[in-house]
Amino acid sequence: MLVRYKKSCEKIAMGLLSFMPEERELKKLKETMNIYQTNSNWHLFLWKEGEAFVGLVGIELAEGHYTLQHISVNPSFHGEGIGHAMVEKVQQLIPDLEMHGTAFTEAFLEKCSEAKLAVI
């Protein structure tokens, strides 16, 4: 289940973000969290399985599209389709805008598209 980030989950969000290679350093991690907390165009969501938060997805809204800035899943849950599910839920939340990726998220988005094509 996708839930909007709340300040009370900051440590959980930072832990999940730290699984991304470009977010491993504490200084960079704090800067990223500050952007999500202060910039109204940046939105962070957590993925909850049962009682645990196991994934995170962050987007930046822009005119006519949004960019998937961050996507991370706890390594213990890799291969369970959580990343794909998070992308689908975000697309359902913002159906009128096109999703773009960054240098770090584009490859994952391409995998999601390939998986959809394989199912059809």
TrEMBL record:
Keywords: Acyltransferase, Transferase. The keyword Transferase applies. Residues 1-120 form the N-acetyltransferase domain. InterPro entries: Acyl_CoA_acyltransferase (IPR016181), GNAT_dom (IPR000182). Coiled coil: none annotated. The keyword Transferase applies. GO terms for molecular function: acyltransferase activity, transferring groups other than amino-acyl groups. Pfam families: Acetyltransf_1. This is Riboflavin biosynthesis RibT protein. It comes from Planomicrobium soli.
